[in-house]
Amino acid sequence: MLDWLKGYDRHMLVQDLSAAVIVTLMLIPQSLAYAMLAGLPPEVGLYASILPLIAYGVFGSSRTLSVGPVAVLSLMVASTLGQLSLQGVHYLHGSLALALMSGAWLLVFGLLRLGFVAHFISHPVMSGFISASALLITVSQLGPLLGLRLQGEQLWPLVSLFQQASAVQWVTFVISIVCLGVLFWSRARLKPVLVKAGLSLGLSTALVRMVPAVLVVLGILVSMLADFSSLGVAVVGQVPAGLPALSWPAWSELPWRALVLPSLLLALVGFVESVSVGQTLAAKRRQRISANQELIGLGVSNLVSGLSGGMPVTGGFARSVVNFDAGAQTPAAGVFTALGITVAGLWFAPLLATLPKAILAATIVVAVLGLFDLSLFRHTWRFSRADFIALSLTFVVTLLVNVELGLLAGIAGSLVLHVYHSYKPHWAEVGLIQGTEHFRNRNRHVVLLDDTLLCLRIDESLYFANAAQLEDVVARLVSQRPKVKHVVVQCSAVNRIDASALDSLLMINERLRIAGVGFHLAEIKGPVMDRLNQSELVHVLNGQIFLTLYQGWQALRASDASSSTSLLLQETYSHENRT
User: Which are the contacts of 385, defined by CB distance < 8 A and separation ≥ 6?
Assistant: First the structure.
């Protein structure tokens, strides 16, 4: 806050106030919907949109991020508490505990400056998780949309739907169809219509974002006039007016040890989603956010949410984009939004009692279906099969098992695939491009080779998993080249050498010494050389360490008077060699 308060002026105040009005109108139906998605009373969503916004305004680093309940975290809360079979007040206390514990994780990570943990969840894994979550959320809303009580988790409600198809509540179904049609049409068609009518692009965008709030107001009015509840339409019910009271979960009555891992996953998912949104929006204004400060901001936001009767929160994509497009200049816009939510909670909350749940369900479905990205599967398959495996694994396990295991499976799969690929490092025999000092793969370029000099480039850091592979490559190539007198390993792509790799280099050096072949290294990076200088390799090396491979090429050929004539190889472009 000390950063953005500097230079705060009247213009920024006006911009933040106008953005807050728009976001408030959007956030009220979203907060109610996401609380009900998590299986919580609707007012919990409102409570989670007051103090967390103020806390983030004080501690967060993004100027336009809007914090509150989001669909994916709501699904994770419902999944976690549902698996623990918590009911009634214990269910609510479980939500408070998850908010407090995830906030504690985030705050500790921030104080320890562990912002890099966001990079342990790759983009394909996160995308697969969000896409599967979007489908699960959509399935979970079929009951409210059709007026049915569907049983089961993951995709099992579909089975219950087929069994109860004849019991569809038709008034609810009509309300759902109308609301879905209006919401989808407004997203796709309304803005061009408003622009064509003469409204500015910014105002047209704002009006489109207000459509869910307008539907809520109309739904309340029509429900009151037609008495929907007497027709069998499920409504929100009594929503208590007033501000949230200080809350504290009954830890002794909760299986809190079972909440440790889910709260950590909630913290990680929320942090990754929030940072990705914050960085995207900050880049548009040439600003920057601090990952470590974001951990602190989100941590405090979740702590105050848990202490004020709320639920786990993070930076929401849709809300943040609306906040940005509406012209918000600082986190003060979030503070003003919190004040707007407070006013709504104090004076208008009781009016929500007659709101049909189908309207909130339609709002959720339209919001989350945009998170499902089918094109990502095709794009990832074409670019990286390993990432596609991680993406598909996350998607399938999340869809068929549960959201926590889906995310863990994706993270584990990504790490295993990374280790597998680095286990078999790419290497190439390189030669000199005539007339230059550059060395390139002999299978891709026309290069000069010397049959007494074997030059190898290793395109991977050397560590315990792949060190033996280098031993095998050198041994195999030397056995195939009886005239080789020198082996030079180009280390320009080697960023690290661990103890196991050092032992392998010593082994290669000893085997080549016995065979009467010199072992040389070239283009070692400074930090790697610093480590090697502390080892015995530099003292027992059966050769030299060259600054560049070209220097080694010149020195070794000049030292060998019996060197044979260089060979000019023809260019080769086979698919196998390129791979």
Answer: none
